[in-house]
Amino acid sequence: MKKQLLFWGFVSIAVVVGFLVHRDDVSAQRARSGTRSISPNSPASAFAAGDLVVYRVGDGSAALSSAAAPVFLDEYTPAGVFVQTIAMPTAVNGSNKRLVAAGSSTAEGLMTRSVDGNYLVLTGYDAAVGTTTVASSSAATTNRVVARVSAAGVVDTSTALTDAISGSSSTAANIRGASSTNGTDIWVSGTAAGGGIRYATLGATTSTQVSAGPPTNIRATEIFSNQLYISS
Fold first, then answer.
1. What is the pLDDT averaged over residues 30-57?
2. What is the dihedral angle through the alpha carbons of 108, 104, 137, 183, rounded to the nearest 10 degrees?
3. Alpha carbon 53 to chain centroid distance?
4. Do 122 and 149 contact (CB within 8 A), yes or no?
5. pTM
6. DSSP character string of 140-180
């Protein structure tokens, strides 16, 4: 399983945002902790101030590949105690789309916290689990999805872009991550056709290209002092 780590905090002092990619097996930790996994249609508990939230790809039942894998958000205390898992949708439910990730990608799941501190913002694909070479799909048929997860654990995957970061049979187009000031205005990063940096709003199906490069292979985005920063 692949993980992306984000410090979560709602306190007004010393809120730290950091990233760490690593592989781990959380099944044993979950069993020891006695805490619960939460499906997309189940009510989640609110995140606790100061806890860590991990973007996890896969459930440990199979090796990761370029195929679409389920995504989970795992919450831990700073002491490393597992708290809860929130699963991203793997079936369409009303306006909420599916959100999966390319299992073997090393530069997806670059989750951020909104500038106002109220939401986690993460990205993926509207595809069935197991879809082969999901990053090589066209955005018109496999929408690029931005999820907004509130401090209360409410998941919104209604932002499904048809014109952003679109692949083809010969070109992968990974959606990397997204940033937001307020949970409504969203900047998305990725590569290939329709890549670079794109701007969209919550619930949108189309986006506006802000920067096509160079650089074109945009990875992480983050907002500091009302300025959007990128890495490539």
1. 71
2. -20
3. 11
4. yes
5. 0.84
6. TTS-EEEEEEETT--EEEEEEESSSSB-BTTB---EEEEEE
